[in-house]
Structures are given as C-alpha cells and as structure tokens.
C-alpha cells in the first residue's frame, strides 16, 4: 500500500477540484435546465486571472480570488442573459450557443494571454514539498485539499440549510410549483448561472497550479466535469462528490496501479458505470 | 458592365505579363534576386519554436546584408500551423506560386514528411532546421538539426558512468518520444547500463493528456531507481519539472534531452529546474567566435538568449550562403542541391559540423548542460563535452 499513498492522496486533491467545478455544472443543468458547454471556459477565466495576478506573495491570493471569481461570475451572468430567448429544455440550441461562446471565449483568452500554457506562482511558503509519513507531497496541494473540503461542506450546508438552497432544490424537483409560489423563474435562472460561474471561477483560481491555464484547459475541464455529472447524476451534492472523487482516484491511483491502461482507464470506468446505470434506467422504464 | 469586364481582363493580362517577366528576371543573370521559402509554425502549439526559426534565419540575412552567396535574397515566409493539414497547402504555395529555389524551416517531423510529395517533383533542396522524420529518399533533403535518436545516444555513456544504480526511463507516448527514448535506452544498454523500469521497458505517458505526473513518480520511487532519464517538451516539460521538484523522487538526479529546459519553458519552470542535467547540440554560453557574434546579435532585439531552434535555422541560412556561392553565377535548385552535397565543415555557433553523407543530417558534438544561476536568470550552462554523434 505504501507506494500508492501519495497517488491516493493526490486523487483526493484532483477529485475535490473536479467537485467544485462540476457542482457549478450540476446547478446550471439541474436547476436552470441549461446545458452549459462554456463551463470549462469559466474555469479558464479564473485560472488565467490567477496566472496573471499571482506573484508568489500572500497579498495576491485574495486579489486573484476576488478578480477571478468576479470575472467568471460576470461571464456566467452574461451567459444567462444571452440564453434568455432560448426555451427551457431546448438543449440543442443551448449546447450550440454555449459551445460557440466557449470557442469565442477561448480565442479571446488566447489572444489576451498568448498561445502557451502559463505558469502559476503559488505563495513561496507553499511552493515546496512537505514530508508525509516518509513521502513528500506538494504543500500547495495539501492546503488545497483542506480549502476545497471546506468549500464542499459549505456548499452542502448552503443547499440543505438555507432558504436559497431549499428554493434551488425545489426548482429541481418541480419548477412550476416554485413559480406558483411567487418566485420569478428568470431570477432563479440568472442567480443559478451566476453562482455556477462563481464556483467555476473559484475552482479556476484555486486549481490553477493543478490544472493550469492554457489553450486546452477549457476543453479538459469541461470534459472531466461532464464525466462527473454523468456518473454522479443531478440529484444530490453527495452524488457529485462521490463521482468527482472517483474520477480523481481513477486519474491518479488508477494510473499508478495500471500505468499501461492509463489512456483509457477513465473512459473504460465510465462506460462500465453507464452500462450498469443504463440497464437500471431501462428497467424502471419498462415497469412504469 | 461590358467595358468593366474588358478593363478587368486587360488588367489581368497585364499582371500576368509582368509576373512572367519578373519570373524570367529571377532565373537569369548573375546576382539576380533569389527567392527562398521558409515554412514554420507561426501560430498554434509550436508558435514559440516557429518564431525562433524564422528569426534565426532572418538574423543571418540581416548580418550579411540580405545576401546569400552574393545574391540578394527575398525570404518568403509561410505558416506551417499545427501540422500536415496546414503545412502542405503552405508548402504548395511556396513551390508552385512563389517558385522558391530552396525551402527551409519546418518545426514538426510530421509536417516535414507530409511536404515531401510537394517539393520532391520540383527537385528543390529542403534544408530543414528542426523536425527530421524517417525518409526513404534524402537526395534533396538536408537537416541542420539532429536525428531524434541521437540526443539520448549522446548522453547514455555519461549517465552509465556517473549513476551508481539503475536508471528509470520515462517519456511521452508519440513518435518523437519513442525515438528520443529509444536513442537513450539502446545506447545505455550497449554501455552496460540497466533500466529500473518494471519490465525493462520505457514507461510512456499519454500525450498530450498527461498533466499530472504524481502517479508516475510513485512508480519511479517504488522501482528503487538511482536516477531518471526523460524527454518532454513544451507544456508537458513545465508540468513534469515543476511536479518533479516537489515529488517523492525530488532527490533523484534528473537527466534529460535538452528540450526539457530549453527556451521559454525554463522561465516557466523557474527554480524547480535548478540542477537538471540535459544533453543538447547547443548552448548560448559556448565559447567560440561564431557563437559570441550570434548571441550578441540575437540579444540586440530579443529578451532571452537564442535557442537551439534559432541556431539551427541560422545555420540553415549559413548552409545556403555557402552553397549558393558555390553554385555558379546562375544558381538553380539543382545546382544549389549539388553544392550542398559538396560542402565541407561548417563553422557554426554550436562549433564546427558537417553533413553526414548517409543521413544528410549533422555529424556534430553534443554538450552536457546543467541549469544554473547566471546573473539574475537561470540558464543552461555547459558543464562538459559529450560524444560526437552522426555517421
């Protein structure tokens, strides 16, 4: 077990990063009914802002957090505005529109920051390895695990214990009833996309040293978070968390255990789970 | 309307006529302007390398009054993009429309292979300055760079002599990675070295998908290796080096093909790259007259020191300079190609080298470099000579 300790720990860091991103995607799809293919681009905005502002000091951290989250939130809100004429549930139009915006946004980011993957500087005190039971591990990633875990707990509490969270959950279950209760669906939709953007931007700033900004960042992040959404479903925070951690572990512990299978491990696992779940769904259809 | 059409036709006719006379001018007369085509990635993933290649060639022209072999040269630059799909139409334009007498540049080995059917029938000499694919017929193909397998082969004996124990070999899973690593592992085995890899075979990581090398570092740690040999370039090189420095194997010496720490990636890696050993055919701190002049001229309008890519393109211009000078008063593609075959030693910023009769790529010396502090910046400092490779 000893040689696999660090990959297993790294899988948690990776999984929690994916959780924060994918939680935003789950919100926009589950609550607002919007299939947002520009979600990876919102992450990229946060990551580029982190690369741009971070200079190895502590002062840059809150600055990058505020700027990155604000930028991605604004982009998410703008997205909600552009999607207003599109009918709820018209996923093809949404996908085309958001995919087009993702391409345009990606080009804008590249023309602003250049075509190369940018380095991200973390505070000097965290830019070193630390000792863990005879192994070394990057200090930044260890701190990231703690911070992301706090975000996950906060998100869970917000969804289960606050009025806004209850509205969100109600909107997933029965959007018409929520509208009848006098809550403006447009406001829910804009609010949800703004929060979704904020989560992607937050993940982008914090995760930039792990999945760094570059021309392929948006596509990588979108693909991985779509996998998480497919595996975890749209119904619960816990489901998303479990799926994100599983994807993280497959990408690290799985690769360490079976290095030769690394190129297809993730998609093989996804195909297996989908096959099992699809059969489950089918059975429910036939009994209904 | 009819009159307009007539005017248009007349103008077109006039343009065609001037175009024809222009062409006639180029091919005839001593000292007439020669067109040289340069194909390099000016956009996409390899933009940084492509820009270095263009600037290296242009620098040689600027330092020699815009002339090669006594003839004024018009450099026609075209964008290779990310690979064959963009490189082929760009090369076709240079050959068919611009009618260049020689073609140089080309970043990717795949692009270099794909444009052969375009330049082959025209019998234009191709002086490649970077990617060198496996080719059957090299009668009109020359490279000022290296063969992919030579990099690792040049450092294998040194690694065997200086590492007490087994060495772990790891690299990216694509043609360039296979060639680079095979060059090392074959020569290392011949020198009596042993790999630490589980089945004695190099570990190849998915490319370009791999961003996180932590699981592979755990493997290396578990293998009990005493050192690591690798080849990565670009974004993967940044990720690999930064993560290596904070990983479980941070104390193992890292040996690499020079591209791991070459050019812009070294700035991005920063302190994480300190002490990495690498092998390359060039370093900006080489102490010879050609190099001092080259580096000074390069730094006059660039921020950092020149890379091996810029140096190889500078040398491609030097090769053409000598060959055009030796190709008579009325150089054609064919006579230039013959003149290249007859060139002897070429004095270059990397030291003297010459074309191999067999592979048409350089027989050259390789250098051991280490990333060290040089003034305020980190740089690849030459710490010794390695083997001279080429046949």
TrEMBL record, chain A:
It is found in: Cell membrane. CDD domains: TM_PBP1_LivH_like. It is a multi-pass membrane protein. The chain crosses the membrane at residues 12-30, 37-54, 60-83, 95-114, 138-159, 190-212, 218-246, 253-276. The keyword Metal-binding does not apply. Pfam families: BPD_transp_2. The keyword Ribosomal protein does not apply. InterPro entries: ABC_transp_permease, BCAA_transport_permease. Keywords: Amino-acid transport, Cell membrane, Membrane, Transmembrane, Transmembrane helix, Transport. Coiled coil: none annotated. It comes from the Bacteria. Belongs to the binding-protein-dependent transport system permease family. LivHM subfamily. This is Branched-chain amino acid ABC transporter permease.
From TrEMBL, chain B:
Residues 1-24 form the signal peptide. Residues 33-375 form the Leucine-binding protein domain. It holds the Pfam family Peripla_BP_6. Coiled coil: none annotated. Keywords: Signal. The keyword Signal applies. InterPro entries: BCAA_transport, Leu-bd, Peripla_BP_I. It comes from Phytohabitans maris. Belongs to the leucine-binding protein family. This is ABC transporter substrate-binding protein.
